[in-house]
Every structure is written in C-alpha cells, then in structure tokens.
Amino acid sequence: MAFKLSAGAKEFVPGKPWGAAMNSQPQQQKPQGYGDAPPVDVYNQYAGPPSRSRNAAEGDHIQIVQDTIYQMSLSPGNYDEFMRDLVDMLNTSLTDPRQLEDVADIVFDQSVLEPNFTYTGARMCEYLHKHLMLKETFADFRKQINKRAKDICVNRNIMVKHPEDVHRLRGATRFLTELFLNSEVMVEGQIKRIDVYRIAQKQMMETLSSNPTTENFKCLGQIFKLAGKLIEDFDREKEKTKYASAVTQVFNNAKNVVIDASIDRDVRQMWLQLIERRACDWGRAKNSPLVAPPASVPATIQSGPPAVAAAAAADVPFTNEPVFFSPDGKIISAAEAGFSNVDDFEREYEAYGPGDAFDQYDDDADDYKQIEEAIAAATLGPGGDYGSMQPYDDWDPEVEAAFEQFQQESGYHGDYR
To answer: How does DSSP assign 101-118, residue by residue?
Structure first.
C-alpha cells in the first residue's frame, strides 16, 4: 500500500479518536452461550460478546464502550471523567434500540466474567441509567441489565450442573450483589435499595449453596465478607424477624461444608470465621450503658460517652484534653505521667527562626531515607518491580493466593517464595 503522507503538509487530520490503542490487536470473538466464553482479560484486549453480526459502520458505539472499559482498567481513579465522556458520546451515537442492547451486552458480560470489574460495572450501570438521554422508543438501560440477569436466574439450576456454565452463574451472583449495594430507587420520598436484586441474588445463592464445591462456597464466602451485614439487615427488615431465613439456610449448608474434606482448607477456614462473625451479629457489640463519672473527677477532663453525658447534665463545656492515669487508676498530671511540659515545648519551638525549627533533624531524615530505601529493596526486590516482591508472613491465605495471581498476570511466572 502506497502512503501519501508529506512532512510539508499544512495540516494533519487524524483518524477516529477512539480505538487506536485497542485496534492494534485483533478482536477476539466469543461464541454464543452461557459458559463458552473465557474470562475477559482487560489488560490485553476486551472481548465483547457479539450476539449479532455487525458491520464497521454499526460498531462505533461498541468500540467506544470497549475503549472506556480498557481505559478504566488502566486508570480507575479517573472513573468520573471517563464516564462523563462515555455518556456524551453515547448520547450522540445511539440511534437504534439494538445499539443500546449491544452496550448492555458488553457491560454485563465484562462485569460477570471479570471479577475485578464487578464493582466498577455496577457503578457503570447506575451511572448510565441516570445520565443516558434515550429516546422514548428505547428501553431503560437498567431494564436491559435486569433482563440479562433474569435470564441467568431463571436458568440457574441448569447452569450449576455444568462446569462451563457455573462460572458465569457465580460471576452473575457477585455482580447482583454489587448492583444491590450500588443501585437505588426513590420510594415514597425515601431512597431505598432495589428489592428485585436481592430476590434474584437470594435464589442464586441458595442454588450455589445447595451444590457444595470449593468454588461455589468461595464465591458465597466472598459475598458475605463484602456485604453479609447489609444483606441480613435488609432481609430482617423485610421479614420482621431476628434472623433472615435465606441467610440462615446458606449458613446451615455451610456448616456441612466446614467438615467436608473435599472442600479446600482455606475456604473452610473462611466459613468458620464467617459463622463466628454472624454469631456475634457481624461484629456489632452491644453498647455499654452510660455511667456517671465520680463526683471527684471534673467533667471537663473526662472522655468517652459517660463524660459527654455528665458534661451535658452539669451544663459544663466538654473538652478533648488528654487525661493521664496512674497504675492504681488515679488521675495524674502530664509531668507525673512522664510527658514534658507543653509550655516548655512551645517556648523551645518559638526560639527557632522561620524554617530552622527542625534543622537539627536533617541527619535523622537522611537515616530514615536510607531505611525506606532498604525496605523498598527488600519488599519490591533489587529491580523495584512487583515480580520479586515478597509476601508478608501474616497474610491471609486468600490474600496470598490473590497476590500470586496478580504476579502471574503482571508477567512474573517464578516462585515468589
């Protein structure tokens, strides 16, 4: 192919602003069906689910969404900026209801198949629902997502029996959890969570817990670690009971799992911790009753709820001054507790000129810098990369496994131990 580029041209007109980074790699095609698609690798190339044939003219909105997802995976801190740009472009490019279905396909599949995108995908759905200016002939974006979630929920008992499909079922359960946490509606002047997400999630969680495997209960355990308290509180409010029946059923099934040797040891340990945590109402201890302070102790130097109550009752202004106690519980002064006089410190500080107050610590600062460099070298390795980073001894096994996966995805394939 002959190129007609000239260095002496008066102006340069670039091609399409979208797709330059991603078009350098071939598009991967995902076959139709529930479980035929492998997990999406956003670090290399997003693979969307082309459920219908499309020509190049139809694909602009698809490329826009794919590139936005790719950019958000690289710079998640710029989420708001990316979403504003995405909405602006979709509002001008969506001209047919089928195009909105394409967008819903991409966002839903990426959220279900890529665990690291589940939270961002739920936020993305809520943002598009609120800010897309669709024509009256278009279905609401939230309805598009709900329709895809319903398809999985209806077929959950079939999908859980097939290894190639159950991965998608677990991903959809996690995604519904994030939708439940991040989506809201206005009901009678009050902002509330969406019931239908919890109903569908409840049914899918019951299906997974009734088919005990390591991956199924790992998925359920991660959900309860994320939102167990909120899920049970929501069910309690609906059922007007002390314990949510659906959550209780899942935990009853989990009690059989923790003694099942075929389940991974780390997963069983995670569920033992969850059972213990639920037994103490998800870590919420009962508040201690307010106790009036002794008459010999001034209310102005008390701390904590009892002091607040006493100060309010006595109409004495409450302060946050520190209080020092001796080993036998008596209040003592700061000097008696071994702290230098505050006034002496302030006079010493004022004796220095501007900018000279801490010059005496320059040598110490150099020492700290050397220590930090030594820590970085020991942690990240001589090359300063994550590939040679060593795990901490007190890491949770689940965190350690995730770290090892992160190293592999980052291009490091050696043993990190």
So the answer is: HHHHHHHHHHHHH-GGGH
Quote the pLDDT of residue 135: 75
214 and 264 in contact (C-beta within 8 Å)?
yes
Sort residue 19 into left (φ over 0), alpha (ψ -120 to 50) or beta. left
CB 37 within 8 A of CB 30: yes
In this prediction, residue 387 carries a pLDDT of: 46
How many percent of the chain have pLDDT more than 90?
Answer: 37
On whether the pTM is more than 0.70, the answer is no
67 burial level (CB within 10 Å; 0-12, 13-18, 19+): buried
Instruction: Give the span between the Cα atoms of 127 and 111, in whole angstroms.
Output: 14
Question: 352-361 burial by CB neighbour count: b if 16+ within 10 A, else e?
Answer: eeeeeeeeee
CA angle 176, 124, 145 (to 5 degrees): 50
CA distance 134 to 137: 8
- How far is 105 from 99, CA to CA, in rounded Å? 10
